[in-house]
Write a structure and sequence with these properties.
This protein is mainly α. The chain is built from 20 helices and three strands. It has a three-stranded antiparallel β-sheet, with no helix packed on it. A hairpin with a 6-residue loop joins strand 1 and strand 2.
Length: 408
């Protein structure tokens, strides 16, 4: 994949073991300002996540554009100095990013006024497919705030066979702009508050905004989750919801109200709520769908799993109940979410198949459950790339089969 460069370089301080930014003009000068999440003038590529051991070697910062560390500790490395080649690459990356932002804005402008119920099925699919090249190239961080809202509106412009939200006796109406402020003042149940408090420190523990009690990220996460628990007492809070809220806060620039509104959309309109109802009906449904699809696309691997008594419950729940945000680098996760919001659960099913196909030969070489677990744990840097996304888009899933599985 193509690598882009920040407009700043990083060097190791002589007094402490951490990276500090170096701004470059004609000559190299050191800046005392630290970088904040989302403030880089030259954003990184959509697929800039690299294995921990290569981040320092390639002159990348210790964190990616969303504030996640490339590794907990980056050791070694020499002082990096500006060069004409680095400046040229950064300038080219800047222009590429600006062009991509403009492309997203132009396509969004063309589509956002359309009434989807009046658009023909063929035209509707063309409008949806028009976003795929931009998603593969990488949606710019600053464009996601508007595009995720647009993707959800586009997805629900028509009825999709992948939309599944189980019936509820206590249906919650869509929140308004004032709902969040009202819910923040209403205390959630004791059990929900206790569970949320326990999960705050477990959610993105290495992210710069979520480190420490009272940090910006943990405070916003607490507010959003408690507000939703008050809004939907039938679900309240369930482990895994904190990752959904956390990703939304990062993508929406820590806008608590916007994250709260979008969390409702994910749970009620995309069927995510089914994963957190008593008995986890959504997990059982999608586990069955994925099992059928894997037997079709990865028959040897599924037979190998059966031989070793390796069940999909070993890894699928953590992938689906957090939409991959617990197990994979943020740049990959954000792109998977782009596809999910545009295409629904079909995208998640196909990405799951593509990930396992990427490491199928390694999994087949294992002769124990421990070996399978090790490969699944250590593969994230190998599969978090554009090839996996492209492979998932080439997988053809029979819509009739999926509809039948949903009815079953």
């Amino acid at each position: 994949h193509r690598e882009t460069m920040h407009n700043f370089l990083w060097k190791r301080s002589n007094t402490r073991s951490r990276f500090q930014p170096v701004t470059t003009t004609t000559t190299t000068t050191t800046s005392s300002a630290t970088s904040d999440v989302g403030t880089e003038s030259v954003p990184t590529s959509s697929f800039n996540s690299l294995p921990p051991e290569s981040a320092a070697d390639r002159g990348l910062p210790a964190v990616d554009e969303y504030g996640f560390p490339f590794s907990d500790v980056i050791t070694g490395g020499v002082e990096l100095r500006a060069s004409n080649a680095v400046v040229r690459r950064a300038t080219k990356a800047q222009r590429t990013q600006e062009k991509r932002v403009q492309q997203c804005e132009n396509l969004h402008r063309q589509q956002h006024t359309l009434r989807w119920e009046t658009v023909s099925e063929k035209k509707y699919e063309e409008y949806q497919q028009a976003w795929i090249p931009l998603i593969k190239a990488g949606i710019p961080k600053q464009s996601r705030v508007n595009l995720w809202k647009h993707f959800s509106q586009l997805y629900f412009g028509r009825t999709h066979e992948y939309h599944s939200c189980g019936p509820s006796q206590n249906a919650v109406p869509p929140p308004t702009e004032d709902t969040y402020a009202q819910m923040k003042t209403q205390p959630a149940s004791v059990d929900a508050r206790r569970a949320i408090e326990l999960d705050l420190a477990r959610t993105f523990p290495n992210h710069e905004d979520f480190i420490g009690r009272g940090s910006r990220g943990q405070t916003a996460l607490l507010n959003v989750l408690q507000a939703y628990a008050s809004l939907d007492p039938e679900v309240g809070y369930c482990q895994g919801m904190s990752y959904f809220a956390g990703i939304l806060l990062l993508a929406l620039d820590m806008d608590e109200n916007a994250a709260f509104q979008f969390l409702y959309t994910l749970l009620w309109k995309y069927g995510v709520r089914d994963f957190f109802l008593p008995g986890l009906p959504g997990m059982a449904k999608h586990m069955h769908i994925v099992e059928v699809l894997l037997k079709k696309f990865c028959p040897k691997l599924m037979k190998h799993f059966e031989t070793l008594d390796c069940y999909l419950t070993l890894f699928i729940p953590s992938w689906f109940m957090t939409l991959f945000s617990q197990s994979f680098p943020s740049s990959f996760v954000m792109t998977v979410w782009d596809l999910f919001l545009l295409q629904g659960w079909k995208a998640i099913h196909r990405v799951t198949i593509a990930i396992l196909l990427q490491v199928e030969h390694q999994l087949l070489a294992q002769d124990s459950l421990l070996g399978i677990t090790t490969v699944l744990r250590e593969m994230r840097w190998e599969v978090a790339n554009i090839d996996t996304i492209k492979s998932s888009l080439r997988i053809t899933v029979d819509n009739k089969l999926i509809r039948a599985l949903h009815r079953h």
